[in-house]
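Sequence only, no structure available. Ideas?
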Amino acid sequence: MAAAVETRATRIGMRVASWLVLAFLYVPLGVIFLYAFNSSIGQAWPPAGLTTKWFTVVWHNSEVRSALSASVRAGLGATAAALVLGSLAAFAVHRFRFFGREAVSFLLVLPIALPGIVTGLALNSAIQAGHINFSLWTIIVGHATFCVVVVYNNVIARLRRTPGSFVEASMDLGADGWQTFRYVIWPNIATALVAGALLAFALSFDEIVVTNFTAGPQTTLPIWIFNNFLRPNRRPQVNVVAMVLVIASFVPVYLAQRLTRETTSGLTGR
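Reply:
I predicted one. Tokens follow.
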């Protein structure tokens, strides 16, 4: 009886703790969503009223549209670079045995653990030393340094879960290297690549620290928010842009999680 009561109390406590953590993480985001519809430019509680006029104002704001375009282009460019470099690196580390293989794997994932300000400062110094003009391309290079990590991790994890017997059976049946890749390896890693691309785009789209060090005249959405959130007359527009940024980050992360979970279930037969 005592054990049953303790188990029930533990279960309730864990549920309460889970809800408290979720509230801690998402209530502030909910506040941003609410104030995006606030009819007043003030941040007083409760909101003076609800309106959608700020969405129209933001839509007609040329600065926001330009920042959105820069964010999308930087995200797509960084994602494309990450897909190529991350997948090639994953295949090399998984397929071949060479001196320093584990060190290479460690160095590939290290950028995601480094403070963004350190990465940004290093890139800024390298760009200036190379007498390269700051532009959208330097933003893409900066974002690719950490986007490569998520693609690499996704692909190499999938390769490690794919039985080597699949490849051996394909070769035994007379398939060449290209046919083995096309019909055996590709179907197993395709969703990992898509999930990695979605996560890479989400990371790039809302990145601000590295962007500040690598951007030229371009302004991305996070930089636009940073430059305007202290201006009282711009606060409602900032809330709307922040809301869009949250949704734009949530959707690819959610899709990536679904893809990873469904594919993992398929590989394990569950």
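The CA atoms of residues 208 and 226 lie 9 Å apart.
Hope that gets you unstuck.
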